[in-house]
Each structure stands twice: as C-alpha cells, then as structure tokens.
Write a structure and sequence with these properties.
Length: 467
C-alpha cells in the first residue's frame, strides 16, 4: 500500500485514525486462532459514510479490506492473510436505540455483547446469544460468525435475533436489509445471507436486533456422573421432557483443568458432568426444577445432583465452564480446537469416537460444550514443536470431521470456516451448492477485496489451525 493511498485513507478518517506503526499492526495481526498475518495498515472508521468511502477507494485501487471486531474468532476470519487494510470497527460502538415497547434495538457493530446485554436487562429485556467471550467480543463479530453460546438450546443463535442490517458493499454502495417488524417477506432474505458470511460479502455498519422479555428467575443444577457415557446419554432423556435454558457437558479432562474454579469438591470417581440452567418466572422454574430432579434421580451412573444455593454459587459454576478453553493450556502448550455438531442422540457416539481416537494417536483429546444442541467442542492438545504430535493432531482433525459428517453433523457450529476449516468445506458442502456460494461472492465482490482468502481458500494452501 503506497503513500498516496495511505494519504487518501487518512483524509477519510483523519490521520489519528489510521496507523502503519509496526507495534500497532502486530496488535491486529492475530485472533483467537493464534495464527498471525501482518496487515499493511489499520483504519478506524466512525461512520457508515466513512466505511463507504474506504470501500470505494479499495475498489478503485484494488487493495484488500478485512473487517475486524474484537479478534476473538477461532478460525482466522479476521486475519489479513493477503495483507491490505484491517478495518477495526471499535469506533462504531454506539447503542443507537432500545425500543422497549416493540422489543427491538439498533446497534453499531463495535458494541460489546456483554455491555449490550446489561443495558437491555436494565429495561427488563433480554438478548439471549451468549458466546463465552461475551465480556469482550462484539455484536458485529457475532453477526459475522453467527455466534451461539450455551443458551442456544432454548433460545437459538445470533441469526435468530437479527431483524435487519445496514451494510456497505465492496464497491462502497450502502444497502439496508430486513425489517423492524416481527414479520416481513419482501424479496430475498439478504439479512440471513450476510449473517455468518464472515465479512466476505459486505461490511456491516448497523444491526437491528430482536429482544425478548427478561426471565425473572433462574436456577442452576450440577449433575455428576461416574462415566462419560452416562452423562452424554442423559442429554436426550432430559430434553425429551424439558427445555432448559442451557445444558452443558464436560468430560473428566475438562473437569480436571477447572477443578479449582468449582465451589465444592467433586466425588473422586466423577468422570463427567452436566450443567443445567432453568429459567422463566419463579413458579415455572420451581416446577421445572422438580421435574428435572425426578427425571435424573436414581438413574444409572448418576453420582450426585447439586443445585446452586444462590446466584453467586451459580456464577462460579459458569465461570468454571467459561474457563475451560483457556485452562486447557495447562495440559499442552498448543491445541486444535474444533466446534463440531452432531444430532443430540449421537453425542455418546461422538464422545466414544474421540476417546478411541485419542488412544490410537496417543493424544490428549478433551470434549465439552453445548450438549443441549449437539455442539461439542473437541480440543486436541499437543506441542506443535513435536513433529509426531503435530502430525497426529492434523490426522485427528481429518478423522474427526469425517466421523462427524458420517453422523449427519457439521464441521462447525459457531466458529465459522475462516481459514482453518476452508480445506474441509467441500467435504460437507456438495459441488452445486458450493458453486452457488462462490457465485454469490463473485456477484457481490467481483474484485475479491472483501476479506479475501476466507471460506473458499484452496485445500492445498491450508491445514488445520493450531492455537
């Protein structure tokens, strides 16, 4: 990117909002995947008009633009793999409107998810999507990846709450999609097209969100089991009778790395647990709590059922759950973290497969995650400086994806494709469907300047991402 182009960019946003300093570029060269690619520059627009002007310049001078939220993505979606300009959305961080009566909100993409949830809850409203990184991830990043979270089992994922968008196309044109109403079927659903598109089709500058009434009560249960398969087998039984707000699963290895975060000592023979939260009005929650207890008590393999005594104890349990991913590095210095999904009835089969795979390849593989919707996080732990472990980890990833697809599952539930899973996309998507997706990309971004190298990257150029 030459000095002339940089001068034009500085004129759009002001010189204080464009940087080429190496120490700044390094901060925007990585994300949650732990891969690194250095951009040529980083720009911080503050309005839709500025984003449009930047994209018009990018289209004219043909440089890549990579939109970026907080950089918490796990598949390299925010990485400038072909250099160019990183567009950091942190200045577009306003909650523009919260309409309590119509239960909608309008926000900019740089709004922190947790902050937004706090604001709507003060008004008695509720925004359910709750990724583990909600205290620092952004709504825009959530929309780009169609983020989920533990509450998805009852409430769905980000796309279920996006009513409409304002977005800037690759050539700088501004489009508005969707509605502010509960219903609307005029034309193609461009909103759904852009949600989960990982910044490859347009840059989102405003988001209209659907809200719910805030549940007035909740309670959390911990179910402890003496075998992994007793725990995973219980998932279907619970969901056949109840719809909990969350239903999370941890295997013995996940438990071991967060044992210090759990507010009481677990029985020594605990091999797995389920973390169950019920919510609603107080009366409904108590009825559901009685039903849950009746469903699980005296079941084979159940060691203990505990109910959090207060909100503080419940929060400690959830802190332990959210701490699993970073705590895994106690086991090995690096990992391949996958977020596969299978039909709930096949969770025991998936977990059994990972155990056999770990034994066969002599690897540490732990499983945890959103059992309520079949979204299991499989963490393959390794030392990437050890050639045997590195090769075994890559083999494990290939084998895992093959097994998941045979189980009628998907290779990604909420992390997206990015670059780390691009080599496997054609394993799941049939050629005609993939061709349609590529045609859409070509139609909206014919110069391939919006987040190039993502989703459709050739298989020969990318192996599994290792954190």
């Amino acid at each position: 990117m030459d000095k002339r182009t940089l001068k034009k960019l500085a004129a759009i946003v002001g010189p204080d909002h464009l940087t080429t300093a190496r120490e700044d570029l390094l901060c925007y060269s990585y994300d949650g995947s732990a891969l690194e690619y250095l951009p040529a520059a980083v720009i911080f627009p503050a309005s839709t008009a500025e984003v449009g002007a930047i994209m018009r310049l990018a289209s004219t001078e043909r440089f890549a633009v990579v939109p970026r939220g907080a950089g918490t993505g796990m598949t390299g979606g925010a990485l400038p793999v072909e250099g160019g300009l990183v567009m950091a959305m942190s200045r577009l961080n306003r909650i523009i409107e919260i309409d309590r009566d119509n239960q909608i909100a309008v926000v900019e993409p740089g709004v922190i998810t947790g902050r937004f949830q706090e604001e709507v809850e003060r008004l008695g409203l509720f925004y359910p999507p709750d990724p583990a990184s909600r205290k620092f991830c952004t709504i825009g990043g959530n929309v780009g990846e169609c983020a989920g979270g533990p509450r998805a089992v009852k409430y769905g994922v980000t796309r279920d709450y996006v009513l409409g968008l304002e977005a800037v196309l690759a050539d700088g044109r501004i489009i508005k999609t969707g509605v502010r109403t509960a219903k609307g079927v005029a034309g193609y659903d461009l909103t759904r097209l852009l949600v989960g598109s990982e910044g490859t089709l347009a840059i989102i500058t405003k988001i209209t969100l659907r809200l719910l009434a805030r549940p007035t009560a909740s309670t959390t249960f911990l179910l402890l089991f003496d075998t992994i398969h007793s725990a995973t087998g219980m998932v279907g039984t619970i969901l056949s009778n109840l719809t909990p707000c969350t239903l999370e699963y941890m295997d013995r290895t996940a438990l071991r790395v967060v044992a210090g975060n759990i507010p009481f000592k677990l029985p020594e023979n605990t091999e797995a647990l389920l973390l169950v939260e019920l919510d609603g009005n107080p009366r409904v929650v108590e009825i559901q709590a009685e039903e849950l207890t009746g469903i699980v008590e005296n079941r084979p393999g159940l060691l203990e059922i505990r109910r959090a005594g207060n909100q503080a104890e419940a929060e400690r349990l959830w802190e332990a759950r959210r701490a699993i991913s970073p705590s895994t590095f106690k086991l090995k210095p690096h990992k391949i973290g996958e977020d596969v999904v299978v039909p709930r009835t096949r969770i025991p089969e998936l977990v059994r497969f990972t155990e056999e795979l770990a034994a066969e390849l002599d690897l540490i593989i732990l499983t945890f995650g959103h059992a309520g919707d079949g979204n299991i996080h499989v963490n393959i732990m390794l030392d990437r400086d050890n050639p045997r472990e590195l090769a075994a980890g890559r083999t494990a990833t290939h084998r895992l994806f093959e097994a998941v697809l045979k189980m009628d599952g998907t290779i990604t539930g909420e992390h997206g494709i990015g670059i780390t899973k691009a080599a496997f996309l054609d394993h799941e998507i049939d050629p005609p469907s993939l061709a349609v997706m590529q045609a859409i990309k070509q139609a909206l971004d014919p110069l391939n300047i919006l987040n190039p190298g993502k989703i459709f990257r050739p298989a020969a150029n990318r192996s599994a991402g290792i954190a």
